[in-house]
Amino acid sequence: MLARLSHKPAVREILIFLAFCFFTAVVTWPYAWHLRDAVADSGDPYLVTWILWWDYHQTFTDPLHLFHSNLFYPLRYTLAFSEHCYGIALPFFPLFALGVRPLTVHVIALFLGFAFCGYGAFRLTRTLTGSSGAGWIAGIAFAFVPFRFGMMSHLPYLFSGWIPLVFEALVLFTRERSWKRAWWFGVAFFMLGLTTVSWFTFSLVPLLVVAVVLLTRYGIWRDPAFWMRSAVALGLACLALLPFMWPYHAAARLYNFRRSIEEVKGESALPHHWLSAEPRNRFWRGLGQDLPKGTRFRLFPGLLPILLSLSAWLFAVVGTTRPTFAGPALRNRSVALFDVLAILTIVVAIPVFGTAGLGKLKAISNLVSSDQLLAVLAVIVLGRLCLAYPLGLRFQNANLVDTLRSERRPDAFWVGLVLVFIGFFYSLGWNFVFYRVLYNLIPMFQSMRVAVRGSMFAYLGLAILAGLGAKSLAEFVRERYPRIPVGAVVGIIGALLLFELNAARLKLERGDISPDAVSLRLRDTPMRGGLVVLPTNASVNHHHILRAADHMKPLIVGTSGFDSPFAVQIELKTRAGPIPPDFMQFLEDIPTSYVVVKNHLLPPERRVDYEAFLGRAVAAGRLRFVNRFDGRDDLYAVVKTQPAAKSEATIPFPHETRDWSELLKEDPVNLLGNYRSWAQTICRLYLATYGTMPRFAELVPDAVFVGAEAIASSLDDQQSKLDSNLRRLAEEWAERPRFRERFGSTTEEQFIDALSANAGIPLSAADRAALIEKARGGSTARANALLAFATRPDFAAREANRSLVLLHYFGYLHRNPDDPPDRNMDGFNHWLHEIEASGEPDRLSRAFLNSNEYREVQSRTRRR
């Protein structure tokens, strides 16, 4: 019965799609086992989850305001700050209606995205070649190209199955210009734009070029049916897309959204990146590692797709034709005209490229850019080749038009070749004139930052050529060995392809699928303004957006393709150090209704800063504490916006003012907060005096001494008090027996030279003389000189990272770096290298905060 059903077109297509689902489950294992909550990371998957949910929610709530989302209140068109993904969300509306969690919908959509890409490439290649075997090879190569695994955080870009389908629709329509196929072309074009604006934009140029190739091959430039029906179908598709495209124009105009050239440059590959492989691929791990910046982009598609594409070039010749050299009359005159234009363009280009805006010819470079000249020259050369090849290039045909019309190469060859070249040029981005011209000519390209994503078209072209090459190779084998069926050869190639592209076992995270208590409370709470969730930064913003799908309230903070100026200001004001008093006024002006403080996401050293700000705002009657939820999330009402909000509990931290000495005794992690610069200065006192970093038992008492009577919540007085205490410490330092034993018998010159040698900071003659003079006059003078040396900017900059790592061991783990369980400095050196290489010291706090040892330290502290 299944065999009979498989002959029905609809059933056959479903079975093919299910086969690609099976391949996806195999290649991405164990993803299929965790379709409830598996995500590649807790970043963009959370953002896309919210987008899919918003598409569903707003469609059945207020569809006319789809783009005015509950993100980035009070701005408008905020869905247009990133991909709207409506075409992805649409097929999954039934899952939302059944109550499936938004994150689960995202996981399922990502899984099916692999299969959909494979099915789309299968259909395109089958249509081009007439071979299902070629389609299977192309589908596997396109669905599981290694570059796609790097997109698992970005569902809109992984879900690229409409790209091959729109090309298939174009091929079908050029072959048969019926209304039915015109409508399918319009629907595919519409769905491409409805799914991903970036893929729609990237597709415009290759669609145009492929259309030109096919119109030339089929000789239908003058077919009125093609032009009329394509105009109607594409016109209606564009009209239907207008409500989904106009908001991007409105947002760009309102907020001046445009990707800078520097942003595009940063996401543009170089040719050698095509030889750099994903480290997850078990076969090609390490390929390209030693190339200059070889790990920045990893575009290697695998060896088999390349070899199969080469076999398409070698074997895929479907027939031969005689050369069709054109008559000399009109064509010779046109060729001469194009040659003259090319020469004139080159003549103009010489001063543009060579003068760099200098000399008497600089006026030319002010009128026309080098990119414009290269584009004009490319058009002239292409026009010339369409009329006649240069004599040395006339192999089989007289010109490019005759070559395209020749039956030597099938449609699949030309479509694949066009896509390979355009995708390769796209991937180079600002490093090649092609993308620069598009950026300046087509406004939609100015909104895209990651030019390298255009390489997806090269992968599609390679997949088509690989399918064609596999088909040709199988037929070649059958001719030589008639007993070997074509299907067997294709099956072996497909298995080898799956084997090569099968990456290592995926490393997945379990997403935060369920709503928290404070989100459920907010969902039932009326609001006159927006919601601020703190802390806000790159590592937690996506989580806030995910929860916005639960509470459904207007969120002020967050992140997207473009960001809100309000969100940026909130992050800047709360990123580090004491939260300024004017922050409360800023929240009131937005206006903000409620503030949620997620204490478990706060680095422990920042809690003092938050408590100081919140305590002042509550005492001033500008914030009202509502309650604590899940034992960690605090909800505050902004009284000016929500005057009727009720307090349900007392504020969960003490109101009394505390000095830094008390805070440091309570938890050494406070060494890393607003107190950090003084703690680092103490570290440098030890290093300059004794040539070694301090031990945990040494530094904490000294830090407590400096923090005495310096009130943590007093922004005006704490710095002067800490500076005064630091001077007292230096004076007491110079009286210590260890110091006297080390420097009691030295001269001032020897003392300063010892400090310089211990610190590894060479001194100029003037600096050395000034410090020697400062050190004259006894122990107090030496203390002043020592403190002056320890606070030198060059010394502070040199030791910033080393002292920061040391303070993390002291603050989070309450031990020295070489204490058990480490017993050596390997862990310390690892983290020092990490922050020096990455330039991201914030990674330290996240790593130590999430470590098992920190949890054990916290558990022991609570038991005491």
Helices and strands in order:
Elements: H1 2-6, H2 9-27, E1 38-39, H3 44-59, H4 86-89, H5 93-97, H6 102-129, H7 132-143, H8 146-149, H9 155-158, H10 162-175, H11 179-195, H12 197-218, H13 224-255, H14 261-266, H15 303-315, H16 329-354, H17 362-367, H18 370-387, H19 400-405, H20 411-428, H21 433-441, H22 455-480, H23 486-501, E2 509-510, H24 517-523, E3 530-534, H25 541-551, H26 565-574, H27 582-589, E4 592-598, H28 607-619, E5 623-629, E6 633-638, H29 660-666, H30 676-690, H31 696-707, H32 718-733, H33 737-743, H34 748-759, H35 765-775, H36 779-790, H37 793-813, H38 826-838, H39 842-849, H40 852-863
Parallel strand pairs: 3-4
Antiparallel strand pairs: 1-2, 4-6, 5-6
Rg (CA only) = 33 Å
Helix count, per DSSP?
Answer: 40
User: Strand arrangement, largest sheet?
Assistant: 3-4-6-5
Low-pLDDT residue intervals, each spanning 5 or more residues:
319-330, 352-361
The shape is elongated
Task: Tell me roughly what share of residues is in helical segments.
Answer: 55-70%
What is the mean pLDDT? 86
Largest sheet: 4 strands, mixed
How many DSSP-defined strands? 6
Structural account:
- With 864 residues, the protein is mainly α.
- Helices cover 60% and strands 3% of the residues.
- It has 40 helices and six strands.
- The strands form two sheets. A four-stranded mixed beta sheet has the order 3-4-6-5, with helices on one face. It has a two-stranded antiparallel sheet with strand order 1-2.
- Helix 31 (696-707) crosses helix 32.
- The radius of gyration is 33 Å and the shape is elongated.
- The termini are far apart.
- Residues 319-330 and 352-361 have low confidence and may be disordered.
